[in-house]
UniProtKB/TrEMBL annotation:
Residues 19-150 form the Knr4/Smi1-like domain. InterPro entries: Knr4/Smi1-like_dom, Knr4/Smi1-like_sf. It comes from Shewanella surugensis. It comes from the Bacteria. It holds the Pfam family SMI1_KNR4. This is SMI1/KNR4 family protein. The lineage of its organism: Bacteria, Pseudomonadati, Pseudomonadota, Gammaproteobacteria, Alteromonadales.
Amino acid sequence: MKNIEWGESNNPPYDNEACFHIESELGIIFPKSYLDLLRKWNGGYSDPSYQIKIEGNVPIDLDYYLREGFWDVSSIAGIWDSKGECSMLYLLDVAKEWGLPEKVIPLQGDGHTWVAFDYRGSNNAEPKVIFIESDENKSFILANNFNDFVGKLIPYADVYDYDGNIIYQP
């Protein structure tokens, strides 16, 4: 997995028992690469913030969100036994409230838009990572798996200048 500087996590340490409970309740298995990350950095807000480059043709329904060609990844859900901010348990509750489909497991989101694991009809051990909006549940594949997702992250300062103009050069 690409070595990303996530900054300090303010979250409690990763909780294997809580992970097992969540996986059992949802009928999923989190990717090994995601759990490996959580054992080192149990989620939270990243410092610096990252962007993921949008590759491929974005459906017209999602152009409003993804037209700049990048999506902000400023946090990742951690796993522990309570519903603190940036916890998987908290995001699962919020995602349910916003009507995300079953088997779409959020990594980050604000209600309207999410980055999530997509377990719908996929390999249970290596789900795709998607962008999904909650109005019509339209989605777009960001990466084929979590390791690929992390590998595509680019520091914010390499994508945008201080005025918000795109400066990214591949």
